Prior knowledge:
The chain is an alpha/beta fold.
Amino acid sequence: xxxxxxxxxxxxxxxxxxxxxxxxxxxxxxxxxxxxxxxxxxxxxxxxxxxxxxxxxxxxxxxxxxxxxxxxxxxxxxxxxxxxxxxxxxxxxxxxxxxxxxxxxxxxxxxxxxxxxxxxxxxxxxxxxxxxxxxxxxxxxxxxxxxxxxxxxxxxxxxxxxxxxxxxxxxxxxxxxxxxxxxxxxxxxxxxxxxxxxxxxxxxxxxxxxxxxxxxxxxxxxxxxxxxxxxxxxxxxxxxxxxxxxxxxxxxxxxxxxxxxxxxxxxxxxxxxxxxxxxxxxxxxxxxxxxxxxxxxxxx
Length: 300
């Protein structure tokens, strides 16, 4: 029997995403006490998906919409409302039309588009700083477009670790990029805040010095969108445009997170970030008691 080589023989195995793997573990766990605080999904008291009433109403209102393609930069009303939400109507950036933006496939693709734009500029260093903890795919997104990724601490038991934040920003190269630098750009997703993960509704926006730069940036954004997805999806953007929030970090150590998963069947990210939407009347007391117990163990 003849054997044929393949182009994919040298492809290395990639470990699964930590959050997605957490959900797999949760689903096969037979314990009736199990609680999933890992993914940001709204659930009812029985663990079934719960749709926000505003989302239901928006879906009903756009039920008979046609399925024509959107403009390449996205749904105009969605863009207008989101930029006004982020930058506020009174901001000089909005008044002077200095915001370039495009609709994106939720937060992940918005970051990817931002990375593609930034890595092409000659003025910035190819280094980007992201927070620790961050979403598990953020490093991968920026490394995939050619950035060297560095992390800085920003969370503490009392809230934001300002000393670590200032220290990291002071040491950073002046031409490097930080995910916190909101004066240059914003990436936003409505997957969690509106519970529409499957519709991938997001936006990538850049603030420029003047409107002529905006025109150039949007032309390049259009080129990127055309080459990668051709046109943005309409349904999620229409839902968001028709409407008038879910996470916290507990401050537990990775060992404590492992302990509550193994012995109490409570699933959360290793950083102890939890989705409040995973709590309900039937499990909130159980979760609180288990977390209280493990915190008391640490302080003994």
